[in-house]
Design goal:
CATH class: Alpha Beta
CATH topology: Rossmann fold
Number of helices: 6
Number of strands: 12
Radius of gyration: 18 Å
Strand order of the largest sheet: 6-8-9-7-10-11-12
Shape: globular
CATH architecture: 3-Layer(aba) Sandwich
Number of domains: 1
Helix content: 25-40%
Distance between the termini: 20 Å
CATH superfamily: P-loop containing nucleotide triphosphate hydrolases
Strand content: 15-25%
Order of helices and strands: EEEEEEEHEEHEHEHEHH
Largest sheet: 7 strands, mixed
């Protein structure tokens, strides 16, 4: 929902193309996201957007909450379609946020009720995007906080480590877990998927807005959005 902005001051005036900037209780300047669009649903590299905006990919098992995370970040209730039926996302969905970056909803893995050929096709599509996309700045790996990471979750993080992609692990649906068990959730995830020193782990709930600002902060660091604002002289 919020980008963390540096204050741009020239002759004592804040220069910005956004109309709602405010200073929070921590003294950090923030802006609300106003403009979002689904740019394209792609299956091949030639269909990817070509504006050159930095991108953040979101990966995870089917029905882990990728669409809910996107909706929470952009402050929309149902812009990214959510479904109780796993396997609904079958394309790479590029969400244009303020014409500054793309959030890319990657098809969920681990959905058994599709053919082997279909799963292999999705796998090739996901691997091609994650390994060849030059504008990809980091990957958010979502894991259901209610359950231990699966073997597929472990394999995905190992894959991302192999290709040296920056990783943010987000434990979704944390509001469904007793607060007294949150520390255990963190420890279990770190142990199971072998989070490395440079990785980050955030507990998240779309309904309770837990972890929202922390996720945006990580995205801002990876995409250098504020530097882009300054460079453009906005």
């Amino acid at each position: 929902m919020f980008f963390f902005l540096k204050l741009l001051v020239i002759s004592g005036e804040i220069l910005t193309k956004y109309d709602k900037i405010y200073q929070d209780e921590k003294g950090i300047y923030q802006m609300k996201v106003h403009n979002v669009s689904l740019k394209i649903s792609a299956v091949r590299p030639e269909q990817y957007p070509d504006e050159g905006y930095p991108e953040i990919g979101l990966v995870g098992r089917s029905n882990v909450g990728k669409s809910s995370l996107i909706n929470r970040l952009i402050n929309r209730k149902s812009y990214a379609r959510t479904s109780s039926q796993p396997g609904k996302t079958q394309t790479l969905n590029f969400y244009d946020v303020e014409s500054m970056l793309y959030l890319v909803d990657v098809p969920g893995y681990g959905y058994a009720k599709v053919s082997k050929a279909e799963r292999e096709k999705w796998g090739r599509m996901i691997e091609t995007y994650l390994t060849q996309r030059e504008t990809l700045r980091g990957v958010v790996s979502l894991i259901d906080a209610r359950h231990e990471p699966t073997e597929l979750d472990v394999q995905m993080v190992e894959f991302l480590h192999y290709y040296e992609l920056p990783i943010l692990v987000v434990a979704t649906k944390i509001d469904k877990v007793s607060r007294s068990k949150w520390n255990k959730v963190e420890k279990d995830i770190k142990k199971k998927i072998k989070i490395e020193e440079q990785d980050e782990l955030i507990l998240f709930s779309a309904t309770e807005k837990i972890g929202e600002e922390e996720v945006w902060n990580w995205i801002e660091k990876r995409t250098k959005i504020t530097e882009g604002v300054q460079d453009n002289g906005i």
